[in-house]
Write a structure and sequence with these properties.
Layout lengths: L1 E6 L20 H10 L4 E4 L6 H13 L2 E10 L3 E6 L11 H10 L3 E4 L19 E6 L6 H12 L4 E4 L11 E7 L3 H9 L3 E5 L4 H14 L1 H11 L4 H11 L8 H22 L5
Amino acid sequence: MMWLRAELHCHTNYSKGTKIRVEGLHPPEEMVRHAKHINLDALAITDHNRFEGAEEAEKIGKKLNILVIKGEEITIENDRHVIGLGLEELIKPGLSLEETLDRIREQGGIAVAPHPFDINNKGIGKEAIKCDAIEVFNAINKDRFSNRKAKRFARKHSLVGVAGSDAHCKEMLGYGITKIYAESDVDLVLKAIKKGRTLIYGRYVPIKVIKQWSLARINYSYSSILEYIAANYSYPKRVLCERLLKLTKYSSGKVDYLFNALAYLGFACATMYSLIKTPFRS
């Protein structure tokens, strides 16, 4: 038995968004190689409603001697998220929480409630009690209060806590680490998590890294964002958004100071909003 350093929440370029099409930046091989480079022992690939990345990563992991846990961040009803770890095949989105949990466990996997109290309402809130573990630290949460609430909720209900970087590029890996007391075997790791043999080590992804990721995904999705703006926004909001979008073409460059300011302003506003909202999040 040994303590394995595990990243339990990360995305490859198979993960796609809605308004901004590109979400994950790097292919599975780059994510696995970087995980190995930063001395992780285990890596869970949890793409949004996709499974190809996990399957590809598993093959690469065997070559590099790093344990890859196949997973999926599943969008359930009401656009909320649940992570399945230790899966063998895709679980379709849009099901109820109970149906999704049943399908995860039918495959011998475990269910994790990611960012349960996040201010975007993508978590399942207090229904996290139905899962096998709860993410008490998410390294890219826009605020600090939702993580604190998740940690208090887990302690109150004696739930197993895990951490996750929620990495959408390789530079985000390793900020939310779960140390798991188990042998390097997927089934044994899952059993250890269920039994609570975990330790949490978390620090927030630097705003600089999040800004660079945001600009990259905007540029990769430039045409589809323009189409969305044209179809959904009216004057003057449409013109303002188009001009702001055009500025991303000049980064990095003289306009970087503007994006730095916007990034810090965004996090400040999210923190204030969370301070007001989190106590009432169910």
